[in-house]
Amino acid sequence: MVAISAVRSSNESLRDLPSHLSSPTTVFTGATQGIGLATLRQLATYTVAPTCYIVGRSESRVQEIINELKEINVKGTYIFVKGEVALLESVDECCAKIKESLGEKALDLLYMSQGYLTFGGRDETKEGLDTLLSLRYYSRLRFVHNLLPLLSLAPNPRIVSVLAAGLEGKINLDDLELKHNYGVLTCANHGTTMTSLAFEHLAHQHKTVSFIHVYPGYVKTNILQSGFSGPVAYLFKYIIQPLISFLEIPLPDVGDRQVFHATSARYPSLSAASATPSSSSGAAATTGAPLPPNVSIAPGSDGTIGSGAYLMTADSEPAPSGTGKLMRGYREKGVPEMVWRHTTEDIFKRIRGG
Q1: What angle separates helix 251-263 from helix 34-46, to the nearest 10 degrees?
Q2: Which of 19, 63, 168, 252 is deepest in the core (most CB within 10 A)?
Q3: pTM > 0.85
Q4: Residue 304: exposure state from Cβ atoms within 10 A (0-12, 13-18, ≥19)
Q5: Cα angle vertex 40, ends 34, 42, to 5°?
Q6: Distance, CA of 15 to CA of 162 (rounded, Å)
Q7: Residue 320, Cα to own-chain centre: how many angstroms?
Q8: 3-state secondary structure of 327
Q9: How far apart are the first and last CA of the chain?
Q10: What's CA 30's distance to the chain center, in Å?
Q11: CA 87 to chain centre
């Protein structure tokens, strides 16, 4: 476990580091509440003058957040980008606005945590994708696909997707978008496992970028209650939640850890790791904030130190599932490349033409 004190010490060092760490340019999706908002707050707290593009549906809600962030860090620049991120068309529009605004400027961080909890059946968007699977996987990877050129310009680019790293499960290789085999657990497995596999593939294709899939742990947010209704909602709120409250991780701590994932030299890209000793506490600033004492570069999802693709648990340690039988078998069968080919050729081309 990386102690929360070490996490905060690393984050507090950001103000004294080069501008891509002290004043990063970032894109946040799913940050109007919960873990995403907590991460935004902590980023504003620890950095000098961040630029944050905040994607959301409600301008009034994002403006409330911007006002709060300005009180935390008046030097920051906070920009609302209107979008319905379950739709790939809207993702493309958001990315076009961000690219136009940035011009030739690099993007340091793409942070994604959009989604909700439901126990209903398949609910398709107008583009023919299941809404929940789109939010958990397809829309996130569309942001990745669109913004990788800007990320590749940065000295220490990171992509952080907060979902369920470590909880990978079997996926239906003949029906990856779950047109015919939809179920609540199946959808969860597909979103989680496809993210981990796609990130592994992309880390080898884009060796200067770090791809980090995170499980945040049990965090008390509105998303948990939103998935229940009627008597079940009452049972969850007044009986189950109190019983498991000892597992709850405070939101500021979760936000601190996401800033750590987004900035620490513990999670370098594949190319940066090859030039950095795995135990070096004085890692070059281009790989991230220097490693705290007794903290080393993390093993990637395939077990290789500094592989560029990481599955992180709630305590910022690598999830053992990455080197388990299921994921090893998928690698041997070439499934990471298969998943990305499905994403780009079957989905992106069909819906967006490329």
Answers
A1: 60
A2: 168
A3: yes
A4: middle
A5: 100
A6: 25
A7: 19
A8: helix
A9: 41
A10: 10
A11: 18
Lowest model confidence (mean pLDDT) among 84-88, 179-183, 275-279, 297-301: 275-279
- Residue 237 has a pLDDT of 53
DSSP 23: S
Q: How far is CA 354 from the centre of its chain?
A: 23
Provide the 10 A C-beta neighbour count for residue 99: 16
Instruction: Report the side by side order of strands in the sheet with 309-312.
Output: 77-82, 51-56, 25-29, 109-112, 158-162, 210-214, 309-312
Inter-helix orientation angle 34-46/4-12, to 10°? 50
Note the Cα 142 to chain centre separation in Å: 13
Q: Which residues contact 333 (CB under 8 A, 6 or more apart)?
A: none
* Sign, Cα dihedral of 176, 182, 183, 188: positive
At 288-318, the pLDDT tens digits run 999 999 999 999 999 999 999 999 999 999 9
Q: Which residues, at least 6 apart from 85, have a Cβ–Cβ distance to it below 8 Å?
A: 29, 30, 55, 91, 94, 114, 135, 139, 143
DSSP 110: E
Give residue for tokens 């069909």: 350
Burial class (CB in 10 A: 0-12, 13-18, 19+), 152: middle
The pair of three-digit structure tokens given for residue 13, joined into one six-digit string: 């060092």
The one-letter amino acid at 109:
L
Q: List CB contacts of 10: < 8 A, sequence separation 6 or more.
A: 260, 263, 264, 289, 290, 291, 292
Q: State the DSSP code for 156.
A: S
Sign of CA dihedral 76, 79, 85, 87: negative
Q: Which residues of 265-277 are buried (b: 16+ CB within 10 A; e: fewer)?
A: bbbbbbebbeebe
